[in-house]
Amino acid sequence: MAPEEGYQRGLGNRQIQMIAIGGAIGTGLFLGAGKAISKAGPSLILAYAVVGVIIFLIMRALGELLMYRPVSGSFSEYAREFLGPFFGYITGWTYWLFWVVTGITEVTAAASYVQYWWPGVPQWASALVFTIVLYFVNLISVKLFGELEFWFSMVKVTAIIGMILIGIGVLTLALGPAAHTASVANLWSHGGFFPKGIGGTLMTLQIVMFAFMAVELVGVTAGESRDPKKTLPKAINTVPWRIGLFYVGALLIIMSVVPWTEFSAGHSPFVVAFGKIGLPLGAGIVNFVVLTAALSSCNSGMYSTGRMLRDLSLNGQAPKVFNRLTASGTPLLGTTVSAALMLVGVWINYQWPSQAFTYVVAFATISGMWAWIMILCAQIRYRAKVNRGELPASDFRMPGAPVTSWVALAFIGVVIVLMGIDKDTRVSLYAAPVWALLMIVSYYVIKARNPEVFAKQPQGRREQAVERV
């Protein structure tokens, strides 16, 4: 149970389940799906289903590791234990950067959504208010973070279920002005199920993968869950039906009610569908949902960055000051520094054109997938040690491993290749080597100054005293 980490186990089953659901539902569905539909047509449903299977395999691999040893450092700690200190170091810092970048983009996006209702409010002012409020929420207690995340996720879930129920009503009861064109036949009557060919569907895989970024966040909560042995497997096992309902189900209904040809990049398919159904408030509803999705991502970013910096600090791979906890068990300085960087990023985004900032945003995709790669690699090494009798077996084993682990790794490799082919996402592959070089150089500099920092020890250095402020 890793009580020596010093955190308070304030996250209950209800909050863990909604954090898991919220991690799989973000702006990638509410906004990004429009671009993906225009590229692949109805076959996008199949892309989400296939990627959903891969995501489930990744989460089961993480679940096996979590049941072996539930710690807040999660996959960074597992990479350190099973792949070596070098990979633990890179994973911790890369995941921290992923959430800082994501937080910057999401808090900026949230500020822009406010202008839908109040166009006179400066974007920087809204971004500042959101950042400060979420910062203090994360400092007060992990329970408050979990409660806020619960309600953010509830808004997203309610919106999707509402859209599905309304769409079913249109299809079965001929409700609203869209009834005369709504039909399941829309899935194949406008150029077929693969109107852009198999190639068009394949090129949406990176968009689909990005939509699922943050699903692994539930692993970071392991050190603060009241009963991780019970709540985490339950949350992970709900991944298939969550993806089936919220992604496959929602898109199936939307593209049955409205032909896929009426969707385009930059426009939310939910807004388009609400408009065709005859709900004028649809745009405002979706704008509110997307606002909560962006704030949810910012909230999660502040939570995870503070924990990841502290995990690095506990292992001597970040300044010791990040080890400090408040009386309520929250990482003070790690959260503060991350929030400050998010504010700097908002200022940078305000000063420079959005195209320049796209380069930073694109890097979030590849850095997020790095965490998934490390989860799978660590699980493969862990299972090998279990088979040799060197470690106890987890009571939540990944089905079909190690074959399924290698299948998931190969799929991620294919997506990375596709990112290199697509000119819109190729830039993220340019940024990755620069970050990798920085990590390698800093690793060897730290190692030269203090070789013991990266000396591999069983289960890291978590026996260090917890410092509270």
Q: What do these coordinates show?
A:
The protein has 469 residues and is mostly helical. It has a single domain, classed as Amino acid/polyamine transporter I. The chain has 18 helices and no strands. The chain has helices at 13-23, 27-30, 33-40, 44-68, 75-82, 85-114, 123-140, 142-173, 197-202, 205-211, 228-237, 239-257, 269-277, 282-314, 332-351, 354-387, 403-421, 426-449. Residues 458-469 have low confidence and may be disordered.
Taken from the alpha-carbon principal axes, the silhouette is: globular
Low-confidence spans: pLDDT under 50, at least 5 residues?
A: 458-469
Question: Proportion of β residues?
Answer: under 5%
Average predicted local confidence, pLDDT: 81
Proportion of helical residues? 55-70%
How do the SSEs run, as a string of H and E?
Answer: HHHHHHHHHHHHHHHHHH
What is the name of the CATH architecture? Up-down Bundle
Distinctive features:
469 residues, mainly alpha, disordered C terminus, Amino acid/polyamine transporter I, 68% helix, globular
Brief summary of the model shown:
By secondary structure, the protein is mainly alpha-helical. It has 18 helices and no strands. α6 crosses α7 (123-140).
